[in-house]
Amino acid sequence: MTIHGHTDPRLTGLRDALAAMVDSGEELGAAISVDLDGETLVDIWGGHADVARTRPWERDTIVNVWSTTKEVTALAVLLLVERGLVDLDAPVATYWPEFAANGKEGVLVRHVMSHTSGVSGWDQPFVLTDMYDRETATARLAAQAPWWEPGTASGYHAQNQGHLLGEIIRRTSGRTLTQLVAEEIAGPLGVDLQIGATERDDDRVAEIVPPPPLPMGLSQVPADSPMVRTFTGPVASAAAANTIPWRRAELGALNAHTNARALARTFSVISRGGAVDDVRLLSPGTIEQIFREQSRGVDLVLGVPLRFGIGFALPEPQTVPYIPDGRVCFWGGWGGSMTVMFPERSLTVSYVMNKMAPGIIGSDRAARYLTEVLDAVG
């Protein structure tokens, strides 16, 4: 399979790895981008954008990146922190008074940014399509009681973090998350990035191929545990990403549509001290907040050891051994998409795909690609 795009000679191994994955069928279609201090070392893509293999993956193909979206939403909040509109140490209820209900008056913005708020999903009954009604879905979250003591442990806010942070954004900026990303991130940086996808872009969207069922074993876990309550409130559906209602919704935890090139340029803001070319989004002080550890231990929802800073995960070798220790931040999406930032190296690596791998955090494919990058230029 021909891999298209630009590859620095030091990274031909990465290009070969992607070609091998596409040829073997491990990948259907994918793209990888590597930014080193503003220089694009890699911008490659290949494979197909649909299961029938009638549409090649093109330079401008975009795809639903699942929880890599959370990085975009976190960046939007940090932009408001930078401008003094949001205080990470303020109670959420400072900006969203209704959220204080049922014992949540002490939940801080930093708790939501680090998955430690105790509100990691919706109380039943709640189905996936209920997420599409932002106003009703956020009102439901405001009325809930936390499922564990806020600030004491992380419990991955798998599907609702975007609603929580999106409402903080709306209350403080007067704009929706979708608008803020378009006007203050994608527009100034000139990147192909949006929350959801507009009708005019439907023909560019790659078809998602759902993964094998998650081996969660929820039947063995108490029904009132954060894990069960999160993964059943609502039950996730990978196939939903191929529907028009999903694309038109604002799901700040789940449905950014973009490509690797756009993600690498966007998050090089973090790797390069807050500015890309002549566009400054963050100061070094705001970036430093990302690396202040908020939680460390077995996540109450995912059931594996994780470390969270503000808006991003920090290295945890037990769970993500291919991400080296140090001043590194990252997150990724269900099925394997991932963006990793290395500020001390001014390095940003992004990978997106449409054939979802098993598991929620990274994949063997993501590990292979990142290892190729770090072996060559790390």
UniProtKB/TrEMBL annotation:
InterPro entries: Beta-lactam-related, Beta-lactam/transpept-like, Beta-lactamase/esterase. It holds the Pfam family Beta-lactamase. It comes from the Bacteria. One of its GO terms (molecular function) is hydrolase activity. Residues 15-358 form the Beta-lactamase-related domain. Keywords: Hydrolase. Gene3D superfamilies: DD-peptidase/beta-lactamase superfamily. Signal peptide: none annotated. PANTHER family: BETA-LACTAMASE-RELATED (PTHR43319), BETA-LACTAMASE-RELATED DOMAIN-CONTAINING PROTEIN (PTHR43319:SF3). This is Serine hydrolase. It comes from Janibacter melonis.
